[in-house]
Amino acid sequence: MNSFNERGLGMQFDQYNSAMRKNCWICEKWVPVEFKVKDLEEPVFIHLEWMDYKPFYMTSDGGDEFVINTMNPPGEWKFFYTHKLE
């Protein structure tokens, strides 16, 4: 069997393999990262490029820092923080 078409799935093996890798943290070598920011007023959000810059709430560490742990793709990361959205 050379392709998934022979099994009736309607795509070549290369297409299937590529589609499966699009969200595989292990295959794509994503890394866990802890983001921290301080001296901002609550609520604090981080906006990550690979998440379409949607806001993600950062929790307080009980002091003056806000923290969030994320899984990040390899390479350079673009992000920004916002706070006190009204």
Structure characteristics:
5-stranded antiparallel beta sheet, 1 helix, Immunoglobulin-like, disordered N terminus, 10% helix, mainly beta, 86 residues, 5 strands
3D structure, described in words:
This protein has a single domain (4-83), classed as Sandwich (Immunoglobulin-like), CATH 2.60.40.10. It is 10% helix and 37% strand. It is built from one helix and five strands. It starts with 12 loop residues before the first helix and ends with a strand. Residues 1-21 have low confidence and may be disordered.
Structural Rg = 19 Å
Query: How far do the termini sit from each other?
Result: 58 Å
Overall CATH class:
Mainly Beta
Q: What fraction strand?
A: 35-45%
* Number of E strands: 5
Specify the biggest β-sheet. Answer: 5 strands, antiparallel
Main structural class: mainly beta
Q: How would you summarize what this structure contains?
A:
The chain has one helix at residues 13-21; strands at 31-38, 44-48, 55-60, 65-72, 79-83. It is mainly β and 86 residues long. The protein has one domain (4-83): Sandwich (Immunoglobulin-like).
List the helices and strands and how they pair.
Elements lengths: L12 H9 L9 E8 L5 E5 L6 E6 L4 E8 L6 E5 L3
Antiparallel strand pairs: 1-4, 2-3, 2-5, 3-4
